[in-house]
């Protein structure tokens, strides 16, 4: 301590600032922004994978149309569901908005349902199922649905970590003082199979 007292005043202030920073760091003052960034990164992956699925829809619809053009109602339902799903977006800054998040989830659920009905219709067309392009699209769709599941799981976990931090000690102290814009983030909810991924189980010649 005598060595600290002998320091010039500016050095004492610097030393005190360093010690305060270390003390605050040990109290978790940086946990909220760190967990917030984790939520944003996880959400970006969710958006990427949903967009990947949306990008597959036009080619899928055109391929099915080539063999089942008279299934007009089912095809239009997929096109309309895709249009709505791509119009409703939730940015990282609005993840705390329950209504916006609900609309996003419902639009993606609607697209999942429409795709499921389209694949059920395709089951009735052996030539379509044997089409090479259709087979390739099924592989891509299956992979995308798996990626969506993983991205959703990671996002749910990231949100749980963040929401727990801002509601428990000492995070609740920092949330009410230094990070007053820290609000609970919205997460996905399970609704009786409403967001069940369309089953992709087409094999050539099956």
- Strand portion: under 5%
Give me the strand/helix succession: HHHHHHHH
In percent, how helical is the residue content?
over 70%
- Rg over CA atoms: 25 Å
- Per CATH, the superfamily is LemA-like domain
Low confidence ranges: 1-5
| Main structural class | mainly alpha
Count of extended strands: 0
What is the CATH topology descriptor? de novo design (two linked rop proteins)
Main sheet attributes: strand count, strand direction, barrel closure = none
Give the CATH class. Answer: Mainly Alpha
Shape: elongated
What gap, in angstroms, lies between the N and C termini? 81 Å
Tell me the number of helical segments per DSSP (H or I, 4 or more residues long).
8
Could you say how many structural domains there are in total? 1
**Which architecture would the CATH scheme give at its second level?**
Up-down Bundle
Rounded average pLDDT:
87
Descriptive key words:
72% helix, mainly alpha, 206 residues, de novo design (two linked rop proteins), elongated
In short:
With 206 residues, this protein is an all-alpha fold.
Would you write up a description of this structure?
With about 210 residues, this protein is an all-alpha fold. Helices cover about 70% and strands about 0% of the residues. It has one domain (about 30-175): LemA-like domain (de novo design (two linked rop proteins)), CATH 1.20.1440.20. Residues about 1-5 have low confidence and may be disordered.
Compile the SSE list and pairings.
Blueprint lengths: L1 H4 L3 H18 L4 H38 L3 H16 L10 H25 L3 H5 L1 H36 L3 H7 L29
Helix pairs in contact: 3-4, 3-5, 3-7, 4-5, 7-8
């Amino acid at each position: 301590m005598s060595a600290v007292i002998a320091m010039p005043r500016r050095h004492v202030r610097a030393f005190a600032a360093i010690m305060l920073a270390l003390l605050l760091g040990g109290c978790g003052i940086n946990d909220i922004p760190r967990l917030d960034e984790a939520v944003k990164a996880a959400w970006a992956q969710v958006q990427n994978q949903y967009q990947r699925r949306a990008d597959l829809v036009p080619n899928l619809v055109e391929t099915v149309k080539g063999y089942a053009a008279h299934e007009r109602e089912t095809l239009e339902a997929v096109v309309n569901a895709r249009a709505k799903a791509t119009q409703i977006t939730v940015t990282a800054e609005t993840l705390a908005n329950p209504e916006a998040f609900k609309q996003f989830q419902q639009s993606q659920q609607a697209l999942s349902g429409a795709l499921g009905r389209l694949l059920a219709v395709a089951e009735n067309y052996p030539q379509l199922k044997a089409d090479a392009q259709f087979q390739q699209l099924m592989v891509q769709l299956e992979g995308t649905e798996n990626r969506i599941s993983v991205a959703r799981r990671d996002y749910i976990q990231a949100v749980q970590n963040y929401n727990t931090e801002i509601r428990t000690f000492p995070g609740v102290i920092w949330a009410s003082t230094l990070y007053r814009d820290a609000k609970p983030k919205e997460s996905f909810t399970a609704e009786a199979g409403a967001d069940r991924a369309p089953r992709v189980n087409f094999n050539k010649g099956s």
